[in-house]
Write a structure and sequence with these properties.
alpha+beta, globular, single chain, 2 domains, Aminopeptidase, binds zinc ion, 5-stranded antiparallel β-sheet, 8-stranded mixed β-sheet, SH3 type barrels
Length: 478
C-alpha cells in the first residue's frame, strides 16, 4: 500500500494544495466528460461524481507508465484480453486494487477514460500533472547523443533563464581539458545538500540527458510544481542539489564521436591499441528482451577466430573509460589493490596504475567532501536497478543507504540489489562514498542492457525519475 500512504496527505489545505486540488478535480472531470472507445478499447459510461464520492476519489491514484508502452488488460491477469497499450507517461486514475495483492491496478485512463488493469509494478505515482516534457525548450531529447558542447550551451541558457534557481561553475578539467561542470539547483545556503553525478562512464551519457532534463524541469516548474503540498521552490529552499551532469566528458565524447573526440596523435594511438587488446574479449550477447549487445567478458578466454570481432568504430561507442583508458569508477582508493580490474588501458574495467591516478577521480574525491552532503546519487545506465551498499559497511549506514534506495525504488520501480553480497570488485565512487566518506549513496542504473541506451527509452526513464529529486528533498527537509 505504498501509494495509498503517499497520497493521504494531499488533502491538507496548505502550500500549493489549492492548485493541486483544482488539478485533481479537473483530472477527474476530464475523465467523466471523455468519450471513450474510438480506438477499439472498451466503452463504458461513467457514473456521476457526487460530494460523497469525493473523499474516496481523493484517495485514488494518479500514476504514469514509465516504460515505452504497457498493455491494458481486461482482467487482472496477463492471460486476459489485451485491450490496448498505454504510451509512456500516460496518466491513469486508480479505481481499486492495492497492487500488492493481485499485482494489478484497476484503472481509468485520464485521456479518454478507458478502463482496464495495469501491472502495478510499472505504475509510478505522480503528484503534479505535467505533460509538457516535449515542450521544454532547452535540452534536446530528440536524440540520444547529447554532446559535451550541447550540454555547455544548455547550461549557459538555463542559468541565464533561471538565475535565481540555478548556478553553474567549472569544478575542474578532464584529461583532454574539457570542463567538468557543477550545477546548483535550489538555495545554496540550504540546510541540507545532495550530491548528484552522471556519466562517470562515457557510453552512459543517457544519465547526462536525464539529469539535464530534470534540472530544466524543476527550474521551469519551480513556482507552480509541487510535491506533498509544498511548491518545489519551498522544498529546494531547504535542500540544495549539487549536480555534476558529465563527470567524464572525454569518455562521453569518445563514445559519441570516436577518434575525433581526442586531440593528439598519442591519444588516438591509445584508442587503437585498446581496440587491438580488447576486441578479443568482447562478446555479442542477447539480453532478456532478445536484444543483442556487446558485453565485457574480459575475464573470459580470447576467441579462437577473429571473424566476429567488433569493428573499431563500434568498439569506440562502447567506451566507458577516460581519455587515458582508465575507468574512473575503478580508480578510487577503496580496495583498489585487491580489485581484479585491468592494469593496462582499456575501454572499461581498467583501474589505472595507482589509485586516484586520474584527474576526474581526484576531482570527485575533492568535490564530494566539500560539504556535509546528506546523500549521493550516482547515475549509471545498465540494468534498471538500484545498488545501495559496499562490502564491510557499518550497519547503521547500511540501513540508511537501504532506506534511500527504497524511497527511490518506490518511485522508479527499479528493484534494489546488493553489491556486497555479490563480492563485486571495489574501487568505485560508490565504495568511496560508503567507506571513506561514510555517507549513504546509491547507484541508479537507468536503462536496459544495451549501452548506449537508445533514445526510445528516454521518456519512460524521465517519467520514472521526474519526482524523485523533489521526493528526496522533501524527505530530507522533514
Ligand atoms: Zn556505469
Amino acid at each position: 500500500m505504498i501509494f495509498a500512504t503517499l497520497f493521504t496527505s494531499t488533502l491538507l489545505l496548505t502550500g500549493c494544495q489549492t492548485d493541486e486540488w483544482d488539478l485533481m478535480k479537473i483530472t477527474i472531470e476530464d475523465g467523466y466528460d471523455a468519450v471513450p472507445g474510438d480506438d477499439g478499447l472498451i466503452d463504458e459510461a461513467f457514473p456521476e461524481i457526487n460530494e460523497a464520492d469525493r473523499a474516496e476519489d481523493e484517495e485514488n491514484l494518479y500514476a504514469a507508465v514509465p516504460v515505452e508502452s504497457l498493455p491494458l488488460w481486461s482482467k487482472p491477469d496477463t492471460q486476459s484480453a489485451e485491450l490496448g497499450r498505454l504510451p509512456s507517461g500516460e496518466l491513469v486514475k486508480r479505481i481499486d486494487g492495492s497492487g500488492d495483492d493481485s499485482g494489478f491496478y484497476h484503472i481509468l485512463t485520464k485521456q479518454n477514460g478507458h478502463e482496464g488493469y495495469l501491472a502495478a509494478n510499472f505504475c509510478t505515482p505522480v503528484y503534479w500533472r505535467f505533460e509538457g516534457l516535449k515542450e521544454l525548450p532547452v535540452v534536446d531529447i530528440s536524440k540520444a547523443e547529447y554532446t559535451y558542447e550541447e550540454m555547455q550551451a544548455d547550461l549557459n541558457e538555463l542559468v541565464e533563464a533561471y538565475p535565481e534557481i540555478l548556478s553553474c561553475r567549472s569544478s575542474g578539467q578532464s584529461v583532454s581539458g574539457r570542463e567538468i561542470y557543477q550545477l546548483t539547483l535550489g538555495n545554496p545556503d540550504a540546510e541540507r545538500h545532495v550530491f548528484v553525478d552522471a556519466s562517470i562512464h562515457g557510453r552512459e551519457y543517457m544519465t547526462t540527458l536525464l539529469t539535464m532534463k530534470l534540472i530544466e524541469y524543476y527550474a521551469s516548474q519551480y513556482y507552480n510544481g509541487c510535491y506533498h503540498n509544498l511548491f518545489y521552490s519551498e522544498i529546494f529552499d531547504q535542500v540544495c542539489f549539487h549536480i555534476y551532469p558529465m563527470v567524464n566528458p572525454d569518455g562521453v565524447s569518445i563514445s559519441q564521436l570516436g577518434e575525433d573526440a581526442v586531440q593528439t596523435e598519442e591519444q588516438r594511438q591509445l584508442l587503437r591499441d585498446c581496440y587491438e587488446t580488447d576486441k578479443k574479449y568482447l562478446s555479442f550477447l542477447p539480453d532478456g528482451n532478445g536484444t543483442y549487445y556487446w558485453a565485457d567478458n574480459y575475464r573470459g578466454l580470447p576467441r579462437e577466430t577473429a571473424d566476429d570481432y567488433i569493428s573499431y568504430d563500434e568498439y569506440l561507442t562502447q567506451w566507458k573509460s577516460n581519455a587515458n583508458g582508465v575507468d574512473i569508477n575503478d580508480n578510487f582508493d577503496i580496495g583498489w589493490e585487491e580489485a581484479k580490474y585491468k592494469t593496462y588501458p582499456s575501454h572499461g574495467q581498467a583501474k589505472g596504475k595507482e589509485p586516484g591516478s586520474e584527474p576526474e577521480t581526484r576531482l570527485l574525491m575533492a568535490e564530494s567532501q566539500k560539504k556535509d552532503y546528506s546523500c549521493y546519487l550516482n547515475y549509471h545506465t545498465r540494468g534498471q536497478l538500484i545498488y545501495y551498499d559496499s562490502f564491510g559497511m557499518e550497519e547503521a549506514l547500511l540501513q540508511e543507504s537501504y532506506e534511500l534506495a527504497q524511497a527511490l525504488s518506490e518511485f522508479t520501480r527499479y528493484p534494489i540489489y546488493s553489491t556486497a553480497d555479490h563480492e563485486k570488485d571495489k574501487a568505485g565512487f560508490g565504495d568511496y562514498v560508503h567507506t571513506a566518506l561514510k555517507k549513504p549513496g546509491v547507484t541508479i542504473e537507468l536503462g536496459r542492457d544495451p549501452s548506449p541506451v537508445p533514445i526510445e527509452e528516454f521518456t519512460g526513464i524521465f517519467t520514472r525519475h521526474r519526482e524523485t529529486w523533489a521526493m528526496l528533498a522533501y524527505r530530507l527537509s522533514e
